[in-house]
Amino acid sequence: MTNAPARVNGVRAAARGLLAARRDCTFHRVACASKAAAMSRRKKAWQTRKGAAVHLWGRHPVTAALANPARTIVRLSGTREALSTLDLPPELPVTYSDVADLARLVARDAPHQGIVAEVEPLEDVWLGDVLEREVDAQGDVRRPVIVLDQVTDPHNVGAILRSAAAFNAAAIVTQDRHAPPESGVVARSASGALEIVPWVRVVNLARALDEIAEAGYWRIGLDGSAETLLDDALSDIARVALVLGAEGDGMRHNTMAHCDMVAKLPISAAMESLNVSNAAAVALYAVATSGKG
């Protein structure tokens, strides 16, 4: 595939034409069916998770949560100095606390900056809704989707959310399992992006990749052993889904089988790989700048 550029371009063009022709009749049907099935499977899990409070700490995560109309703030705790700098709604329950009290609400040695918010988890985001919105959008059609295959470290997921917000990604997609829950660690690493970028959780990543393809996205898996460079893979592609695997193991075989092609970043041979969050940031930059050079 990588040794025959003309063949690759021909396959791309044919695939894009087929996806465009099938999208209107197939994508919406698949999205509705997928959403209904996922809602049924996850109803009990959501009812359990909904009652579990999440603590966010630090100025950026908390102020972003306060600005997010979709976020329910249960209580805000903080020092008088930290809270005095915020424009708080009068109906919000506020507890003035000292630094030692706040430290007991967060992870050990967490840099809470004198402010902690107890919040309800965000409502579920459905993949079909995200894709339908992007397909129907009249503006920038190059907003990428980030798909993470068993990336479990909350710091990495938070950092990827931050990069996704910086480069205007449409969403990140992870599995229900083998992915971190919404937490203060994720929010802190995301520096406010948890409230901005839709985070879609799916039961079956392979089915989600099929749905993404039906919406007209070209699925590019990142793998250091690939022969094609990402910049070359991005040529003449309107919509792209970037698929990244966990550090060490990389993408699982079945996940890679559901990609249209694999590509690599042009890193030095002296370094075997990048941290997955760094790789995601570089890949998102490549998408943002592709076709502009």
Could you describe the 3D structure shown?
By secondary structure, the protein is α/β, with parallel strands linked by helices. The chain folds into 2 domains: 5-42 and 124-289, SPOUT methyltransferase, trefoil knot domain (Alpha/beta knot, 3-Layer(aba) Sandwich), CATH 3.40.1280.10; 54-119, no CATH class. The protein contains 11 helices and 10 strands. It has helices spanning 5-50, 59-67, 80-83, 99-103, 127-136, 154-166, 184-190, 205-214, 230-233, 253-257, 276-289; strands spanning 54-57, 73-78, 94-96, 115-119, 145-149, 171-175, 199-202, 218-222, 240-245, 261-263. Strands 7-6-5-9-8-10 form a 6-stranded parallel β-sheet, with helices on both faces. Helix 6 links the parallel strand 5 and strand 6. Helix 1 crosses helix 5 (127-136), helix 6 runs parallel beside helix 7 and helix 6 (154-166) packs parallel to helix 11 (276-289). It is elongated. Residues 21-26 and 39-50 have low confidence and may be disordered.
Key descriptive features of the protein:
alpha/beta, 43% helix, 16% strand, 293 residues, 11 helices, 4-stranded mixed sheet, Alpha/beta knot, 6-stranded parallel sheet
